[in-house]
Amino acid sequence: MENVLSLVPVLIKMAIVVGVLLLLPLPLTWLERKIAAHIQQRPGPMRVGWHGLLQPLADAIKLLTKEDHIPAEADRMLFSIAPVVALVPPFLVFVAIPIGDPIQMFGTEIALSISDLNVGLLFILAVSGIGVFGTILAGWASNSKYAVLGSLRSIAQMISYEIPMGFSVIGVVMLAGSMQLSQIVSSQQGLWNVVVQPIGFFVFFVSGLAEAQRIPFDLPEAEGDLGAGYHTEYSGIRFSLFMLAEYLVVVVLAFLNVLLFFGGWLGGPAFLPATIWLLLKVGFFIWVFMWLRFTFPRYRYDQLMAIGWKLLLPLSLLNILVSGFVML
């Protein structure tokens, strides 16, 4: 009976996380369209609700009621499961992401994470790599040249940038002596890792942009030459699952940047709860991702590969070498 009762807090936390993540893209789509509009000196969504606040709800209704089209020559089973495969990893990643120190409630200590794994960072990097399979399956199952080209680009891009992304956090792990995210945050008491690991942060941030397939690294779904890339043939609710996954990857990367390099929930003003301070920093990084999307042009594919292999990979290895010498 005690074992069953111990699962109740975990199930409650899982339900809260899933509910928040499912609803989060609604305000994020509105925010991104408003940021784009203000950068381009136009008002953006204004018609549905005050300043277009209900526009995401109208978009959701539209996507839910559109025809769910499957191409005649597509592999129906793979075509159907690809959006789910793309969506699952961002949800799994949040199992290991803490949002604050444990709190006391009703005489019980409650961790502000579903599971504060001692290999949390390794778990996140491993699970996030699975997301590429959704892209690959979507391109292959569509039986469309544009979709296949988009999925092939995605394979090359994810491999090229996962390597420097993984190397870039080794310096952080060396300083903290742990892969547990709460321990990494605690090790930044008084001095954030971005100060002592600027190269690691630069490599991680740029690699994260490429992993999220956001401009200027959105070659797998470049509308200029591939229609919409790997999800060209998708419509309705299946298409919305890909968009949901894309926004959740941005949120995950914002959390990781803050937890690994910007002190997590530490360093905030005394009057502000630590979790709110963390969420404010995460919101800032989400804004930066959106701002970059409407500021920089898309790279050519050869430039994309060159940045990953010729710039970020050597920089990440140099960062490990320098960190090791400094810690001697």
From TrEMBL:
The keyword Heme does not apply. One of its GO terms (cellular component) is plasma membrane. It is found in: Cell membrane; Membrane. Keywords: Cell membrane, Membrane, NAD, Oxidoreductase, Quinone, Translocase, Transmembrane, Transmembrane helix, Ubiquinone. Signal peptide: none annotated. It is a multi-pass membrane protein. The keyword Metal-binding does not apply. The chain crosses the membrane at residues 6-24, 78-99, 119-142, 163-185, 191-210, 244-265, 271-292, 304-327. It holds the Pfam family NADHdh. One of its GO terms (molecular function) is NADH dehydrogenase activity. It catalyses: a quinone + NADH + 5 H(+)(in) = a quinol + NAD(+) + 4 H(+)(out). It is an enzyme of class 7 (translocase). Its EC number is 7.1.1.-. GO terms for biological process: aerobic respiration. PROSITE patterns: COMPLEX1_ND1_1 (PS00667). PANTHER family: NADH DEHYDROGENASE SUBUNIT 1 (PTHR11432), NADH-UBIQUINONE OXIDOREDUCTASE CHAIN 1 (PTHR11432:SF3). NDH-1 shuttles electrons from NADH, via FMN and iron-sulfur (Fe-S) centers, to quinones in the respiratory chain. The immediate electron acceptor for the enzyme in this species is believed to be ubiquinone. Couples the redox reaction to proton translocation (for every two electrons transferred, four hydrogen ions are translocated across the cytoplasmic membrane), and thus conserves the redox energy in a proton gradient. This subunit may bind ubiquinone. NDH-1 is composed of 14 different subunits. Subunits NuoA, H, J, K, L, M, N constitute the membrane sector of the complex. Belongs to the complex I subunit 1 family. This is NADH-quinone oxidoreductase subunit H. It comes from Parasedimentitalea huanghaiensis. The gene is nuoH.
